[in-house]
Design brief:
This protein is 0% helix and 50% strand. The chain has no helices and 12 strands. The chain has a 6-stranded mixed sheet, with no helix packed on it. It has a 4-stranded antiparallel sheet with strand order 1-3-8-7, with no helix packed on it.
């Protein structure tokens, strides 16, 4: 059973940057799609970025041009580089493997990102 551990969150000023990491306890080499989700208080958890094993990426309109998702299969790690952060980016960020309307793995604890001056 693969476990996912998110890290790298914190408090950052608007316009700042953060890099989130998602470390998997097992191999993700055979997992085609990996993604980052976020959940703000009172809102549903939403997929904001996904990356396929071949490198193809997809982003929600709200983060496109500001966030970059990448993966290092050799390290079993997925990254989310977050630039030009806005207060509306404040949320708990999770990683998982998206499969239509569900996910392949259980949810981890996530990592809190707070954008505030």
């Amino acid at each position: 059973q693969v476990q996912l551990v998110e890290s790298g969150g914190g408090l950052v000023q608007p316009g700042g940057s953060l890099r989130l990491s998602c470390a998997a306890s097992g191999s993700i080499f055979s997992i085609n799609a990996m993604g980052w989700y976020r959940q703000a208080p009172g809102e549903a958890r939403k997929l904001v970025a996904a990356v396929l094993s071949g490198g193809t990426t997809k982003y929600a309109d709200s983060v496109k041009g500001r966030f970059t998702i990448s993966r290092d299969n050799a390290k079993n790690t997925v990254y989310l580089h977050m630039n030009s952060l806005k207060p509306e980016d404040t949320a708990v960020y999770y990683c998982n493997a998206p499969r239509l309307n569900t996910t392949l793995f259980s949810w981890g604890q996530g990592t809190q990102v707070t954008v505030s001056s």
